[in-house]
Amino acid sequence: MAICLKEEVANDNCVYRNEIHRSVRERTQVLQDVAADPTLARTKSVHCAQCNHGEAVFFQATARGEEGMTQFFVCCNPNCGYRWRD
């Protein structure tokens, strides 16, 4: 199988950086919205400790104050949104 890549010339070489600042209060809503994100991986092999729902989204990120990556889960039950890490 051959893969052909087409080279494109950019019209602009400017790199944009968008900094988003949120308060601690907003953080809870952002994490609950994660459960509805269709781009995140989902699993049915875990159960929420709060509501016993059988589906969660998961992602990896660095945990505050820790080295390395941590796997985070968010319950997909819209009435729950419980978060935990592995």
Automatic annotation (TrEMBL):
InterPro entries: Rpa12/Rpb9/Rpc10/TFS (IPR012164), Zn_ribbon_RPB9_C (IPR034012), Znf_TFIIS (IPR001222)
Keywords: DNA-directed RNA polymerase, Metal-binding, Nucleus, Transcription, Zinc, Zinc-finger
Name of the protein in its database record: TFIIS-type domain-containing protein
UniProt GO cellular component terms: nucleolus; RNA polymerase II, core complex
Protein family according to the UniProt entry: Belongs to the archaeal RpoM/eukaryotic RPA12/RPB9/RPC11 RNA polymerase family.
The keyword Ligase appears for this protein: no
Principal location listed in the UniProt entry: nucleus
Organism domain of life: Eukaryota
Domain TFIIS-type per the UniProt entry, residue ranges: 44-85
Gene Ontology MF annotations: DNA-directed RNA polymerase activity; nucleic acid binding; zinc ion binding
Species: Eucalyptus grandis
Xref: Pfam families: Zn_ribbon_TFIIS (PF01096)
UniProt-listed GO biological process terms: maintenance of transcriptional fidelity during transcription elongation by RNA polymerase II; transcription initiation at RNA polymerase II promoter; transcription-coupled nucleotide-excision repair
Compartment(s) of residence: Nucleus, Nucleolus
